Amino acid sequence: MSHETMLQVRVWRGKEDGAFQTYQVPKRENQTVLDVVTEVQRRHEPALAYRFACRVGVCGSCAMTVNGQPRWTCRTHVKSIGPDDTITIEPLRNLPRIKDLATDMTGFFDKWGQAGNVFEGTRTRHDPPAGIDPSSKKRRRADAGIECINCAVCYAACDVVAWNTDYAGPAALNRAWTLVNDERHGDTRGTLKAATGDGGCGTCHSQGNCTRACPIGLNPSESIAGLKRQSLLALVGLD
Length: 239
Fold this sequence. Notes:
Layout: E1 6-13, E2 19-26, H1 33-43, E3 63-66, E4 69-72, E5 86-90, E6 97-99, E7 102-103, H2 106-114, H3 137-145, H4 153-157, H5 159-163, H6 170-180, H7 188-195, H8 209-213, H9 220-235
Parallel strand pairs: 1-5
Antiparallel strand pairs: 1-2, 3-4, 3-5, 6-7
Helix pairs in contact: 2-6, 3-6, 6-7, 6-9
């Protein structure tokens, strides 16, 4: 009879005042961390709370903290996180804990408004579509950050968010940068003013944790740097 290797899985249970509980899960080939969480829920803790949807690395809803790093658990293979057969799984950092591995995302989304992230079109359905050159500098800047799906991994990775709850965070500021560069947006100055105000891009310490953590390879650090440059140009009247 072959010997089955077991993973020691430490899972956060409860809210802020909860604790880790340890479970044993068989180690399998091509096993993802989401597979592990699902097995804990199905075989050990039916009441375990966590989020997931697509399971194929598209929606971002399965983001959790794995061995201290925010990750999409459906994209994270057990064998990729190190040779140790112990895995520690927690909710995303910098967000209130609802229960177990599920967090309250309300504050994260509220900060989009703080950063001026409402698109205001200048045309109606009766007008012809705006003619935008896809190779223009502004369009390429917008396209570089527009694929963000609001998974909050960058927000959880950000130390400045942990220190300063007023900080809008990298996802919100990345979105603001796409709007500032979107020629169809009718309130560029309003967005820039919001994104550079209290808790805006000037609060960023340029550590780059957001860029290192982004599961789809976006660069919020570059977007925030762009907002800083643009705010200086606006200050001296060169925007």
